[in-house]
Specification:
The complex is a heterodimer of chains A (448) and B (99). Chain A has 448 residues and is of the alpha+beta class. Chain A has two domains: 3-115 and 150-306, no CATH class; 314-431, Alpha-Beta Plaits. Chain A is 28% helix and 27% strand. Chain A has helices at 18-26, 41-51, 61-75, 88-101, 153-160, 175-185, 192-205, 257-265, 333-351, 395-406, 408-411, and strands at residues 3-10, 31-34, 78-81, 108-113, 143-148, 165-168, 234-238, 243-246, 274-275, 280-282, 287-292, 295-299, 302-304, 309-329, 358-364, 383-392, 417-435, 442-447. In chain A, the strands form three sheets. Chain A has a ten-stranded mixed beta sheet, sandwiched between helices. In chain A, strands 5, 14, 15, 16 and 17 form a five-stranded antiparallel beta sheet that branches. Chain B has a single domain, classed as Alpha-Beta Plaits. Chain B has four helices and five strands; from the N terminus they run H-E-E-E-H-H-E-E-H. In chain B, strands 1, 2, 3, 4 and 5 form a five-stranded antiparallel beta sheet that branches. In chain B, a hairpin with a 2-residue loop joins strand 2 and strand 3 (17-24). The longest helix of chain B has 7 residues, at 30-36. In chain B, 52% of the residues are buried. The chains are: A alpha+beta (448), B alpha+beta (99). The interface between A and B is large, with 56 and 42 residues.
Chain lengths: 448, 99
């Protein structure tokens, strides 16, 4: 039976590069896919594109492609990535430039478009926003981006043209891993069982090192070897949709039933109904079997018909978040930290009454991660860090928070140290559903 | 005994929703987790932090429970005021639960 091997080149926008190069060289791969888009990334990319029409793609694109393209060409590995972000065309042109520089004559590079709904967003003003159940027209800030989560269709169009490198904008994360299976095995786009398997395969790969022992270690209970040179995962899949997860033997990390179990549950919500643009995957009965060291077989997955809608992420200018931090150490540090927080509450009331939509007062070391009022702390820490954060409509208002924290140097409790302050411009994301027929995935081929 | 002694966990986020798994090290402990770690217990454990409902799903063959916590992340990663905007540390807090 025909098999193909797909590697995961990145699990998030800023991920490490060398593990992917190791995979291309030593993984005996047919494809490598780099997943580099978080929910808000495109909104930020769209703003960069407005300032400079040649920008708006992943800021590490050049850094990665300088190394990855020549290696992929040498080892005959095809590359798929959503690093195009808000500007897949410009990203593809940049890849052509890099490929030419390295003399990769004949390399075919394509961009996939169709996800950008900003030009037609006016027609969705009555759509319900998931986050607040209000119509989109009532969103409290200017819309800067609107991108539908497309499925495999655009990538398949690109692969059908014989493309070596496919650059997309917003597509569902598993799609960049599943598309090669459909292309190579000729699966039908309504073979829900196989698409369910392919989607779960993509789900296991989409966070890179998170299935090979990254984000897993708990010393003494869950030890992971070689985390300083963690390897990224490979999946070897058969035509019938069966597959196993593995890694390059010399790379650090491990693939076990436990690492796979943590990753399968990751962000999946209802395991019986994992909604994607291509299929509703069902992994409630998933089973993992260790076939060999670092080789785990995945079974018990199927799928159901896809829905008629795509999720669409809308980026909008929301607010400014200001924050400030200052530390206290030694005996009595918790009480000095609490006093600092009391002073800050009073000061912010005094200098900016009713300005902040919400304020958060933390004592890092005690209650910044978990703030259940009944939670009992185990012991007095040797140091604490006071942190205040708040949302405001203007930058000047948000700046007041950090300024008040910093002023504790000369006006606050004894021994305050290490104060820092920031103000961030916040682009938030709202989600709506759009009819899938409103979205036309397209592929455009460029040749080196 | 804490859940930390019996199970491991990972948190993910989508918008303002947190997804926390709870996976028994030993398959024999799965039934105990099902019995003790109810939706009500989890909701109470996250008092003051989770505003919305809590839903529990089961993956029996990998002896895992999967909790979905709504309105759990202070507005979601983009606008949360929390130091841990993704709520990624919530798994460690779940494992602190006494059973």
């Amino acid at each position: 039976m025909k098999t193909i091997r797909i590697g995961s080149g990145a699990g998030y926008a800023g991920d490490r590069l060398e593990p992917s190069l190791e995979l291309i060289e030593k993984g005996n791969l047919d494809y490598i896919s780099y997943e580099c888009l978080a929910e808000r990334t495109i909104a930020i990319g769209q703003q960069a594109k407005l300032k400079d029409p040649s920008k708006g793609y992943n800021s590490l694109l050049e850094y990665r492609m300088e190394k990855a393209l020549p290696l992929c060409w040498k080892h005959k590995v095809k590359l798929i990535t959503n690093m195009g972000a808000a500007n897949p065309q410009a990203a593809a042109r940049k890849c052509v430039e890099i490929a030419r520089k390295h003399g990769l004559t004949g390399m075919k590079i394509a961009c996939v478009t169709g996800d950008d709904l900003l030009p037609v967003i006016d027609k969705y003003m009555d759509a319900e926003v998931w986050e607040n159940h209000r119509p989109l027209r009532e969103l409290p800030g200017e819309i800067v981006s609107a991108n539908a989560y497309m499925g495999v269709e655009g990538i398949l169009k690109a692969l059908d043209m014989g493309t070596d490198v496919v650059i997309t904008g917003r597509v569902a994360d598993p799609a960049i891993f599943m598309a090669p299976l459909i292309h190579e095995f000729g699966w039908a786009l309504d073979d829900w069982d196989k698409l369910g398997k392919g989607t779960i395969m993509g789900h296991l790969l989409e966070c890179g090192g998170q299935v090979t022992g990254g984000y897993f270690a708990e010393p003494g209970k869950k030890d992971v070897p070689g985390l300083g040179h963690l390897g990224f995962p490979i999946i070897e899949a058969c035509e019938d949709g069966s597959f196993f997860v593995t890694k390059v033997p010399e790379a650090g990390g491990m693939v076990t039933v436990e690492t796979c179990s943590e990753q399968i549950c990751y962000e999946i919500h209802d395991p019986e109904n994992y909604l994607t643009p291509d299929v509703v995957a069902d992994c409630k009965q998933i089973r993992f079997t260790e076939l060999d060291k670092d080789k785990v077989k995945v079974e018990g997955v199927t799928g159901k018909p896809r829905t008629d809608t795509f999720k669409c992420s809308i980026g909008y200018k929301d607010c400014f978040i200001g924050d400030g931090e200052i530390s206290y150490g030694g005996p009595g540090c918790v009480n000095r930290g609490k006093l600092a927080l009391e002073i800050l509450k009073e000061r912010l009331e005094l200098v900016a009454p009713n300005v902040f939509e919400e304020l958060k007062f933390d004592l890092i070391g005690c209650n910044s991660l978990y703030w259940n009022p009944d939670y009992q702390y185990n012991q007095e820490p040797s140091e604490v860090r006071v942190r205040v954060a708040g949302r405001a409509k203007t930058r000047a208002e948000a700046d007041l928070i950090g300024n008040e924290v910093e002023a504790l140097y000369t006006n606050g409790p004894a021994g305050g140290c290490g104060a820092v302050k920031h103000t961030r411009d916040i682009v938030s994301v709202a989600s709506i559903l759009v009819n899938r027929h409103d979205v036309t995935p397209q592929a455009q081929l460029l040749e080196v | 005994m804490k859940l930390w002694d019996l199970a491991h966990s990972r948190t993910g986020d989508k918008g303002n929703i947190s997804n926390i798994s709870l996976i028994a090290y030993d398959p024999k402990d799965y039934e105990l987790l099902r019995e003790k770690v109810t939706v009500e217990r989890v909701k109470a454990h996250f008092k003051g932090m989770v505003q919305g409902q809590v839903v529990r799903y089961e993956l029996p063959n990998i002896h895992a429970l999967n909790f979905v916590l709504y309105a759990a992340l202070g507005g979601g990663v983009t606008r949360s005021l929390s130091l841990d905007m993704h709520g990624k540390g919530l798994s460690s807090y779940l494992l602190d639960m006494e059973i």
